Amino acid sequence: MSWLVTGGAGYIGAHVVRALSEAGLQPVVVDDLSSGHASFVPAGVPFAQGSILDRDLLVATMREHGVEGVIHVAGYKYAGVSVTRPLHTYEQNVEGTRVVLQAMADAGADKLVFSSSAAVYGTPDVPLVTEDLPKRPASPYGESKLIGEWLIRDQAVATADGAQPLRHTSLRYFNVVGSGDPSVYDTSPHNLFPIVFEKLIAGETPQINGDDYDTEDGTNVRDYVHVADIAAAHVVAAQRLAAGEGVEPAYNLGSQNGLSVREIMDAMARVTGIDFTPRIGARRPGDPDRIVATGELAARDLDWRNRYTVDDMVRTGWEARRAAS
Fold first, then answer.
1. What are phi and psi of 235, to 5 degrees?
2. How much is the pLDDT for 258?
3. Domain extents for the chain?
4. Does the record carry Isomerase as a key word (predicted)?
5. Neighbours of 245 (CB within 10 A)
6. Which of 137, 159, 183, 186 is the most exposed place for a label (fewest CB within 10 A)?
7. What DSSP line would sit under 246-271, residue for residue?
8. Backbone phi, psi, residue 35, to 5°
9. Which CATH class is domain 178-223+255-323?
């Protein structure tokens, strides 16, 4: 039996594919390459190019490869841009998840690990985010991920008394960074690490947006977690579902402590060997001082832990980006 990874040619999905293979599971990839790269899919891994909106493709792929479960990573992940493209965001993330669920029911796949987001919490008024915090998404992206969780919950309720009840869990996380394989790197134009890397490669100076926050060094603090740790948690969640072991409906994959933007910039200079002093720009409207999630439940059930230091995060990401040059 195998596991389908939607979005398996993307930055996070490609790491999940590698982690599945290393765990002795058989990954299968569906990706439309709108933001992924065919080169990120390892040789020998079955790959169907197409959209998660194509139910026939999903069903045929699941049946051909005997898929028992899905790790649903595919989606439109740009929170800021989702404000100007809400209909596209809902199509990809809400309708896409509905189609995945329908295809699973049609093909007899009954296990699902959903790549959700800490964006479901919006801008919380507490420094440490726990799973039971009220959900107040602040963007269409966050809303679409929360609706995705609702769809999955409702399908599980609807199938609970059937022959193949849906078993599932959702993993919520903030900023995924680094690389676990030098052939895979973050190509997003909206994430901090690739933005800084591209500036440094171009000989330009990176910018910090505001240095007057109520934090230790004046720059805002966020949750940065290594992509290899994220991938490993997805695999353990899949293994628990396959073994019939209990899981929570959702887990935060959080760092517990967080890192400030200045700490990231300092590590960038230290690890790359490029000495620079970041420019200070204006605050971005609505940016809170600090948002960090706890990972206690995930540590208990999914062997979740932060295995990488900030220097490791920068080093692995930088080496993968330089390897692509």
1. -70, -45
2. 92
3. 2-175+224-252, 178-223+255-323
4. yes
5. 11
6. 183
7. ---SEEE---SS-EEHHHHHHHHHHH
8. -135, -10
9. alpha beta
Per annotation, catalytic residue among 141, 173, 185, 213: 141
Instruction: Give dist(CA 61, CA 48) in Å, integer.
Output: 7
Q: What is the pTM of this model?
A: 0.96
Contact assessment for residue 59 and residue 107, using Cβ atoms and an 8 Å cutoff: yes
3-state secondary structure of 244: coil
Task: Name which of 24-38, 122-136, 252-266 the model is least confident about.
Answer: 122-136
Tokens of 28: 């299968």
**18-23: average pLDDT:** 98
Residue 105: CA count within 13 A, CB half-sphere: 15
8 A C-beta contact, residue 42 and residue 88: no
Dist. CA 49–CA 40, nearest whole Å: 13
What are the tens digits of pLDDT across the range 231-271? 999 999 999 999 999 999 999 999 988 999 999 999 999 99
Q: What is the mean pLDDT of the chain?
A: 95
Contact 193, 199 (CB under 8 A): no
Separation between Cα atoms, residue 11 and residue 133, nearest integer Å: 28
H or E element in which residue 155 lies: helix 140-159
Burial class (CB in 10 A: 0-12, 13-18, 19+), 222: buried
For the chain, what's the residue count? 325
Q: Is 170 helix (H, G, I), strand (E, B) or coil?
A: strand
10 Å CB burial of residue 232 (0-12, 13-18, 19+) is: buried
Mean pLDDT, range 276-284, rounded to an integer? 92
Establish whether 141 is a catalytic residue.
yes
For residue 306 the two structure tokens come to: 């932060």
Secondary structure letter of residue 307 according to DSSP: -
- For 2-175+224-252, CATH gives 3.40.50.720
User: What is the rounded average pLDDT of the residues 87-111?
Assistant: 98
Residue 127 has a pLDDT of 78
**Strands 259-260, 221-222: pairing kind:** antiparallel
So what's the pLDDT on residue 286? 64
Buried b vs exposed e over 94-103: b needs ≥16 C-beta within 10 Å? bebbbbbbeb
